[in-house]
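Q: Convert this sequence to structure tokens.
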Amino acid sequence: MAKDALIATLSQLVSEGRNPDTMDIDLLPALDIVRKMNQQDALVPLAIEKVLPEIAKAVDKIAEAFQSGGRLIYMGAGTSGRLGVLDASECPPTFGVSDKMVIGLIAGGPEAILKAKEGAEDSLELGKADLQAINFTEQDVVVGIAASGRTPYVIGALNYANAVGATTVALSCNPDSPIADIADIAISPVVGPEALTGSTRLKSGTAQKLVLNMLTTASMIRIGKSYQNLMVDVKATNEKLVARAARIVIQATDCSEEQAKQVLAQTDYDVKLAILMLLTGLEKQQAQNQLKEHKGFLRSAAEAS
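A:
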């Protein structure tokens, strides 16, 4: 896109507008600066509330994909890409899933996570190529993340995903964005101009992070990764998580700390299995069979005993 045309495009974006409430921000002491930023941040949940139905539609599609062996793929550049990588990287320890189940792809590759490679976002072909490199199929769901809603890297990925026949989701902070027009589901929380003009790592980034939290957490809950509001598939990979595993078992069963540790040792720290054994009195193999029969849903497995 020619420079003049790009300037004209940016001038039309809500996320690039000047915020009338922060025009004097450069004159203020620190407390007043952060107070104004906090006032702006308070608008973010209100914007997300308006797009909850679209978020729920995406959750249903992602859960369906997981249940049929598909994956969730995040695509983005800059801050948007880093947020996708962050959310994806936290799924294995939180929900006990493979690191191939939720994947974050960022324009410019892994190096772009630590050091900006802004030019990488301008390639339509790179988005397509990155999906091809992970053998993207129609069983997968791709979420294109772009505050502006016009990032070529994301557009290229969404177009390719549509051609493959996969479910596509657009996450943007501008209404009627190009990626919203391309995707099957458009999630567009409009948070308004940033406190610092065009710095979309602020409100837009916060909105994106909150939406990504919902997409993965709600999808994982829908496929049985929780019991009540407990993370029963958490992997005890360090001392803190070992302690958390014991605490979860205690909270779920009202057993003693000693009982929790004993059963966890028997199950090789499989929290879900330990809870089911304590709730039902089943032996380890019986409990494993019960969970398998109920597709990993602990509540229904426990109620069936």
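The CA atoms of residues 84 and 114 lie 14 Å apart.
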